[in-house]
Amino acid sequence: MQNDPLTFGQLLERHERELFAYALRISGQRADAEDLYQDTFLAAFRAWPPPRRGNERAWLYKIATNRAIDRERRARRVVASVDDLALAATELDDVTLADLAGAIETLPAGQRAAFILRKVQGLAYVEIAVALECTEEAARARVSEALKKVKAAVA
Amino acid sequence: MDTALGEARERLLAKAKKEGLTTIGYDVLGSPLGPLWVAIGPKGVTTIHYGSEPSETELRRLVRVYGPGVVPDPKRSSALARELDQYFNGKRHEFDIDVDLSGLTPFQTKVLVATAKIPFGSVSTYGTVAKRAGNAKASRAAGGALNHNPIPIVVPCHRVVGSNGALVGYAGGLDTKRRLLAIEGADVSRRH
């Protein structure tokens, strides 16, 4: 178990790689992903200290997810990139990545975030709950609902 | 780190700096003594730590004095890196770069200031340093202060030895102390 991060640098070095990957997956475009990564960490620095010690990872995902959803509401355009969804496809047989990307694209923002957090980023439900500001049960329900829709869409 | 993330990080940190969110820049430098974690603050070098990660104690001191805005920033340490390189190659006998001892106790500060005055290639004793720091009886405490020197090499605590000339101790290991004294051609075989 790592110690609590004391500095911005520690937070960055521990979590920036996966947050950047998440930003790429959820926004689908490099320029948007860079903005999202930057906004997320700047918001974390401004809001320092992290609200719950030991839970910084989920806190960062929460900031990133909220910002991604806000951006999408403004832009009405978010597509998870096809390549980045390769991992998510493993549960679904005989489905092309293009089908999958299309299906994920049609999900409401909250469900899409839940799906990517669970199936691509591999977060635990307790972390997804923090990231999406809901209970663990609600996080499970969102992922399951998203999975059902994706399966139906690609069936 | 891959290029896309590296570039994104650089832009992020530039923006954080512009907003006044960052205070200290750090980097890990390679050296003949292994990796050195170094940090530069608004007043100068705050830290040189043997190893690629700082100690928790050191980070706590930096955060206490300068807040949590301690971020990776290789450019900021380039002057220090240059001076250290010259020193290790025997081409520099004094460091020109400013040091920042903020956040230390008054006694520790005095001990380190006295230590900084020991010239290249000479050695002094814990007793002498304690005396110069204003308390001749505090040689043991001076040893403790030197053991927690946050800026070794530049503040040359390796030049302080026991009254019988024994090397006694060094946070970076006795071997490191021996090597630093060898770089300086210091004679530690005789009594001081």
In angstroms, what separates the terminal alpha carbons of chain B?
Answer: 50 Å
Could you tell me the mean pLDDT of chain B?
94
- Output the structural class of chain A: mainly alpha
Order of helices and strands of chain B: HEEEHEHHEHHEH
CATH-assigned fold name of chain A: Butyryl-CoA Dehydrogenase, subunit A, domain 3
Question: What would you say the CATH architecture of the largest domain in chain B is?
Answer: 2-Layer Sandwich
Just give the CATH class of chain A: Mainly Alpha
Query: Approximately how much beta-strand content do the residues of chain A carry?
Result: under 5%
- What is the strand tally of chain A? 0
Count of DSSP-assigned helices of chain B: 7
Order of strands across the widest beta sheet of chain B?
A: 3-2-1-4
Strand content of chain B: 5-15%
Structural class of the helices, strands and pairings of chain B?
alpha/beta
Please describe the structure with a list of short key phrases separated by commas or semicolons.
heterodimer; A: 155 residues; mainly alpha; Butyryl-CoA Dehydrogenase, subunit A, domain 3; 7 helices; globular; B: 192 residues; alpha/beta; Double Stranded RNA Binding Domain; Arc Repressor Mutant, subunit A; two-stranded parallel ribbon
Structure description:
The complex is a heterodimer of chains A (155) and B (192). Helix content of chain A is 67%, strand content 0%. With 155 residues, chain A is mostly helical. Chain A has a single domain, classed as Butyryl-CoA Dehydrogenase, subunit A, domain 3 (Up-down Bundle), CATH 1.20.140. In chain A, α4 crosses α7 (136-154). Chain A is globular and about 50 Å long. The mean pLDDT of chain A is 83. Chain B is α/β, with parallel strands linked by helices. Chain B has helices at residues 3-18, 56-66, 78-88, 106-116, 126-132, 139-147, 174-183; strands at residues 24-29, 36-41, 44-50, 70-72, 124-125, 160-161. Chain B has a four-stranded mixed beta sheet with strand order 3-2-1-4. A two-stranded parallel ribbon of chain B has the order 5-6. In chain B, β2 and β3 form a beta hairpin. Chain B is globular, with a radius of gyration of 18 Å. The mean pLDDT of chain B is 94. Classes of the chains: A mainly alpha (155), B alpha/beta (192). At the A-B interface, α1 and α2 of A face α1, α2 and β4 of B.
